[in-house]
Records
---
Amino acid sequence: WHDDHNWLHPPFSVISRTVGKLRRDRARGTLLVPRWTSAPWWPALFPRRADGPVLRQLVIPAARHSFVAYEEATALGHGQSPAWTMLALKVDFSASASR
């Protein structure tokens, strides 16, 4: 993961593991996550100090067409637009493993 720009949209259940992997591997990437300030992984992305791993962020408001599912997912009842705000985060853990 270290030598690539990773594109990541993990399921909620593995966001903490994904952020941990990025940190351990000193990796960079674009991470798509919900704006969930009470989540256990939030402080790893947004520490109280100014030198956190998030370089840029794009807020994706909850809207009907924010995300579009492929046809098979829609047929299975998946692919509904989220009812929460999402963030696209450009992250860089390469500068420090202790972040």
Note: Strands lie at 5-8, 28-34, 54-60, 86-92.
---
Amino acid sequence: DDSSGLTIDTKDEGEISLLDAALRPALTVDYANEGASLLGDDCSEKLLLKERCIEVPDLCKLFLGNLGFKCYALCVSLYCYGALWSFTAVFGNAVALVAPNSSDPYAFSVLLYAIIVIPMSFLELSEQKIVQVTLSAGRIFMIVLMIFTPLIATIFCHSNAQSSCTSHFSQQTMPNGAPLVNFSGFHRMMPIMVYAAIVHFSIPSLTQEVSQKSQLGNIFAMTSVLCAFLYTYIGTIDAWYFGGDVQQSVNLNWADYHGGTGEIFSDADGQKLTWIHVAWWARMLSFFILIFPAINVVSTFPLYALSLGNDLMRIYYGDNVCLVEKNRRITSLFRAIAAIPPLIGGLFVRDLGTIAGYTGLSGLAIAFCFPALLYIRSTQKLKYMGIPYTTHYERLGSSIFAAGVVLIFGLVLIIGVFITLIH
């Protein structure tokens, strides 16, 4: 029944994924609303998401009660504000390098960022499709450049005699090196890694823009694998090449990239070193890698502001949110509340590593604890109601036991990381 919001699929898909944990409660609500009579007495069918969108705060309120709802709302609000704050820092630090001379180029860059992203935060997701798709291609191109330019610089030096080795990054001729493993930094890495990969609270909204709902599992799985692959290569190669000189925003290491062309020039005092007569292609690569993260966070900021604004509106209006969610004036007010404070905060705390570390702390709860809790509670409720509890999106580890392990892991991680951060 295409009008019911519920589709049944009998394909055998195997075990659990994060997507299954995030969507199962929504499917539970959809199914319960449509009535068990849609399936008769057969509880072996698998549920498939269709057009109805039920956001995660609503799911927490339904399955975890008011306390669970408030805890989730606090975590996701802190995370989104932190993410928006970090976007401000990325843009400010990148654009400050090419901004006009002023007493505080960073503050000038943040002001410019605010002028651009605040109006965009009032647009709906469907109105940003072209921008998001275009910038996705730019992200992949930038990542490829950040992986291969250090490798090419290393290959050129190894192919020449050490005495005639030409630098590609400022005066650095060889990789600085880095230890293969250093567990002393684990507490700093883990929240930042979660911060970089988290999409959990946005899954219900993102799924609405996908026409073939049966492919959601494959889409999210491929995206996760691709991101993990690229993050691993960037982290490994750039840490190995730049070593202790790596910047908080690694793209800033390309500020003095010249690709082995040009020559170095020093001022009269010999204090300031500048590369001159650099090839046009090297200048373009350097400029692109420096400035694209700033362009990228211009497109990402409105997505987070939209998601946070919608969540804040649900928190404030509760069960009556359906009465106001089509009111453009009210939705714009909540998106302004979501978008403006991080821009102000970005003027005061500018270090990306600090912002990402504390933001990732709340992200640990969103990534590990709440999906596991929702999986456990929604499965228990479906079993109690005597209706299907398996979905089309299940992957490896789709069980209450696996969800319990993930939940305990998340709680232990939160406590451990918090203790190390405050010390």
Note: The two ends are 57 Å apart (CA to CA).
---
Amino acid sequence: GAEEVPAEEIASRNSALIQALKAKLGGDGEAFRSFRALSAELRAGQVPPTEYCQRFFLTFQGVEGAGGLLLELIRLMPASPERVALADAAAKVGGARLLQ
């Protein structure tokens, strides 16, 4: 779910998430930079949540556990309408992949 993450856990979980994302991309620095740029566009409001989720799953296509990484990313966001919108988009776009 989208329960609040205790403040003292955010930094360590964020660091672990970044390491997991890099590992899932097999050390492909270009793919990770592309993902970071996509996330920056989302934060700037330049990419709608649905497109973000679609592009996330394209970037992590065939990667076991990609849905779980997206859920952790959403959990680590500050509580906001943007977080709710991204969680809704992830459910629509990700479907069963969120359970993997």
Note: Helices lie at 7-24, 29-43, 49-59, 66-75, 81-94.
